[in-house]
Task: inverse folding
């Protein structure tokens, strides 16, 4: 394995939580790393540890992905650096409570990070990797895409965007040598709750997954070639049935006349 070089993985939100766990696991897979986050001190500490433990090259890129200028810097690196073979699009923030009680500026910031930045980086990676004929894009979504009624409306909408984006990109790049995966974690033990003013300890322990277990399961799904990975889902047929039902709508989603059940313009 000493001569094996899968390339460089760019991981956003890498200073803690899911991003840091991905960095650790990918370093063990011999990826060199480009770690992106706002907290340069924590990134540098993680980089130093992974270099020492795994002997891989680790570069730190301090960027605030709610700032569009910073997003452009990371985007350009994806486009220009042919050594980058994987994007882990992980950076994101969660809600502080119900949408009706949340601050509109905070929700807009959430959209900047969870949607605008994710989209630009995923598109840049898809375009660059397709031209190179290899690469992988991992977008971190959430299980809330399936139960939006139970969560902050803006947050669940941002994660639905990530899932749809991933599925759409896959349809365009699957034949270009690019792997794409959407990871849909459930509740995961990370700092995202504290940053939103809550605590993971207030949640039922039986519903909260260890972050390393979550990432290990996600990488196992990646190795299996899954387009959508739900680490806590026991039966993969449940997701397959949902996909089949969704696709079955296809032939009837667009006709020249309204459905007869509406009783309008059906002559």
Result:
């Amino acid at each position: 394995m000493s001569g094996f070089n899968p390339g460089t993985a760019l991981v956003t939100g890498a200073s803690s939580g899911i991003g840091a766990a991905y960095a650790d696991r990918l370093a063990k897979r011999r990826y060199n790393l480009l770690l992106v986050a706002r907290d340069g001190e924590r990134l540098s500490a993680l980089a130093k540890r992974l270099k020492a433990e795994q002997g891989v090259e680790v570069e730190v890129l301090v960027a605030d992905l709610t700032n569009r200028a910073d997003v452009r810097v990371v985007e350009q690196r994806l486009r220009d650096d042919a050594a980058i073979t994987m994007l882990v699009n992980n950076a994101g923030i969660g809600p502080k409570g119900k949408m009706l009680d949340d601050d509109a500026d905070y929700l807009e910031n959430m959209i900047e990070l969870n949607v605008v930045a994710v989209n630009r980086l995923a598109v840049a990676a898809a375009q660059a990797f397709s031209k190179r004929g290899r690469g992988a894009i991992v977008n971190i979504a959430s299980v809330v895409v399936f139960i939006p009624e139970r969560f902050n409306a803006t947050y669940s909408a941002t994660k639905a965007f990530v899932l749809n984006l991933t599925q759409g990109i896959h349809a365009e790049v699957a034949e270009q040598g690019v792997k794409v995966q959407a990871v849909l974690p459930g509740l995961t033990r990370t700092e995202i709750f504290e940053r939103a003013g809550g605590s993971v300890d207030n949640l039922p322990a039986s519903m909260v997954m260890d972050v390393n277990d979550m990432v290990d399961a996600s990488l196992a799904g990646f190795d299996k070639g899954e387009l959508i990975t739900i680490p806590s889902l026991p039966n993969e047929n449940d997701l397959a049935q949902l996909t089949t039902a969704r696709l079955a709508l296809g032939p009837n989603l667009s006709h020249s006349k309204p459905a007869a059940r509406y009783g309008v313009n059906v002559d």
